[in-house]
Amino acid sequence: AKYVYDFTEGNRNLKDLLGGKGANLAEMTNLGLPVPPGFTITSEACRHYLAEGAEPDGLSEEVAEHLEALEAQMGRRLGQADDPLLVSVRSGAKFSMPGMMETVLNIGLNDESVHGLAKQAGGNDRFAWDSYRRLIQMFGKTVLGIDGERFEQALDAVKGKRQDTDLDAGELQGLVETFKGIVREETGKDFPTDPREQMRLAVMAVFDSWNAPRAILYRRQERIPADLGTAVNIVAMVFGNVGNDSGTGVAFTRDPGSGRQGIYGDYLQNAQGEDVVAGIRNTIPLEELERIDKQSYDELLAIMRTLENHYKDLCDIEFTIERGKLWMLQTRVGKRTAAAAFRIATQLVDQGLITLDEAVTRVTGDQLAQLMFPRFDGGAAKQKIAKGMNASPGAAVGKAVFSSERAVELSEQGEDVILIRRETNPDDLAGMIAAKGILTSRGGKTSHAAVVARGMGKTCVCGAEELEVSTRERTFTAPGGVVVSEGDVISIDGTSGEVFLGEVPVVDSAVVEYFERGIQDDDLVGAVDRIMRRADAARRLGVRANADTPEDAARARRFGGEGIGLCRTEHMFLGERRQLVEDLVLASTDEDRQAALDALEPLQKTDFLGIFQAMGGDPVTIRLIDPPLHEFLPDIVDLSVKAATDEATEKDHQLLAAVKRLHEQNPMLGLRGVRLGLVIPGLFAMQVRAIAQAAKEVPGAKPEIMIPLVAAVQELESVREEARGILAEVGVEALIGTMIEVPRAALTAAQIAEAAEFFSFGTNDLTQMAWGFSRDDVESAFFPKYLDLGIFGVSPFETLDREGVGRLVEIAVAEGRSARPDLHLGICGEHGGDPDSIHFCHDVGLDYVSCSPFRIPVARLEAGRAAL
Ligand code: PEP
Ligand code: MG
């Protein structure tokens, strides 16, 4: 295998092999943009190294060849004492991953070549020693695993209140000695001075960082497969820290927060790489570069236009200016907020860069869902205490916490928390995931906090510089002396950047207003509207709602639902009607039972009337009652306690005896669904009669009667006979079908389809029974461990397990349709609103998905994307 690619050999389609960074460096090189020369070690080499514990044969020779070629091209050898070539070693997986080792700069420096570097820079000793101390610091932290704080503290001790740029050559040389001492102390070895050894160790460290705990955590959060490995880029160094005619920056071709066009970026003079993102010194807005170095600025803008036209999308960029010469160090299609995604997609259509179909595929259901989050009530009284940058939108309210650990701890106790840090770094990842929102006092829109929060769709306000954050005392002080301590509630607005004391009430989003009332008063809603119309026109899947009240039914319709796919009738028996069900189940005589049924029937008829009226002529699938019995019976423990007291009446004792008789060890596998209908005479008949009579009163009503938990066709047949009789009696037509939620039903679908006019996959129960996972228990009990172990990347109750549960669905679809070609097929488990599962439903040829009313827009969009 070929393990090393020169930048001139790759291109952007090789992300699997070269990682995102390597592939795009190659692409930029081929576009003729100013990229420092270099090469990429493939992720395949990394996979081999991780699997075998050793690098693949031939890798070191291949790396040596490419290094020699680079040295020849640059006219300098790596670390050459009098005129050194220096390189950076940078990780770069297929998907960008903040948890991994990022970069070691200035590799090739040692006690000799530091003088050569100074000479190269025209006798600039300060620059050379600054580069050397940076190497030891970065190498020490990321390659040797030394706590970065040690170096920070030593640096702070020399720096005092000055900026790092104020240190002179002598001080920096002193720091190099101090840093070397730290390395010796912490590792028991000297800092490696052989340039090739430095490079080799850095490459191995990048490989190893694939399995750093933070990287694992990030992958799980973002659902990135665990076995991809990372590529490693070796790039000839260019220097942003030579003086004030040099610097480094990051830029976006459009605002990743709003999607609006303009100049967005941060620049830092006389600085190297990580300084910008780490928030070491405060950056200046990119526009100001025009004043500092107009030529580089103009060139950068031209390159940004080239990149946008080439990638046909928002790009983010890292660049360095070395003594007035611009260099591109990275680009990629940039992360963006949900609002920006919709705006940019439609802007690109208007610019003629992409089609509207492509625009639909550029946005996701998850992004749409984010736009439907509530925001703060503009009219509510609020006490604003600070304003930072609007780094990632949304409205978050929670208790202030000042460390990642505490965020995790409190959120595990069910508390909403806002994580507050001066600035975040990859160590804060767990806390960022646990928090409702993130607030920092340092760093810009490209800081770690901002980038990671945007990626997660989490509310974030960053760079609120008026706040004095003390993580040690767990407080922050706002202007005017307001002190917020751990546990105090604050509210942060990631759309405006504002920070409020206390809890601010939240209201619906503009996008929800649009779905609810068609109100279209801003460009974001306009973009959503265009994309939704196209998605609706493109999709093959119908979208229905899981709804069991007229209010939910009406909302579902407003949100674009085309019917009800699941009306859970047991939800109609809660509250005061529970008693009637209890009477029914516990009735010991036919008279008692009939009395309970007679009391229920008119109530049920009213329920169905309301729903039919709300749904107009759209189909309404009514699932006959499916209660796990225990939910409708008095608690056996309470009853036993009561029966043991003197106050217990004869009735209490009878009740206890009856409940004991019906008590089940596994109610979810017990007397539920069709079983209950068959065991309690008259129950299903009562419901069917109520449905038929309600339908008769609403012109155009389209009832569909659905039998739950069927495992054998015989169950269905006997219920169907009775239902047909009642429908004929009342003079109403309705389809009669079944849920497929027991594996046996899926496997005998051909038989079952003989007796069913439609199937609706109840994938909640189907998942429960296919995996043998109690759906009420396992997610909190041991799924975290299963996720840790990588047994699955996401709960099968959230995203349909295609291999197992999906296989059952496929079998049932094929068998069912072979027995009855016009069999209508849908899904009504929670998966009906999950993007990945919706794509599966499209692929296996279902006719519709059904989900909760609020997910309907998401389902419409994803169904459209699946079809395009
Ligand atoms: C299902 O099992 O997927 C289903 C929709 O029914 P319920 O969730 O009511 O059991
Ligand atoms: Mg079910």
UniProtKB/TrEMBL annotation:
It comes from the Bacteria. InterPro entries: ATP_grasp_subdomain_1, PEP-util_enz_mobile_dom, PEP_util_AS, PEP_util_C, Phosphohistidine_dom_sf, PPDK_AMP/ATP-bd, Pyruvate_phosphate_dikinase, Pyrv/PenolPyrv_kinase-like_dom. Residues 415-497 form the PEP-utilising enzyme mobile domain. Its cofactor is Mg(2+). Keywords: ATP-binding, Kinase, Magnesium, Metal-binding, Nucleotide-binding, Pyruvate, Transferase. Residues 530-864 form the PEP-utilising enzyme C-terminal domain. Residues 16-53, 59-282, 290-342 form the Pyruvate phosphate dikinase AMP/ATP-binding domain. The keyword Transferase applies. One of its GO terms (molecular function) is pyruvate, phosphate dikinase activity. It is an enzyme of class 2 (transferase). The keyword Phosphoprotein does not apply. Pfam families: PEP-utilizers, PEP-utilizers_C, PPDK_N. Signal peptide: none annotated. It catalyses: pyruvate + phosphate + ATP = phosphoenolpyruvate + AMP + diphosphate + H(+). Its EC number is 2.7.9.1. Belongs to the PEP-utilizing enzyme family. NCBIfam families: PRK05878.1, pyru_phos_dikin. This is Pyruvate, phosphate dikinase. It comes from Nonomuraea marmarensis. The gene is ppdK.
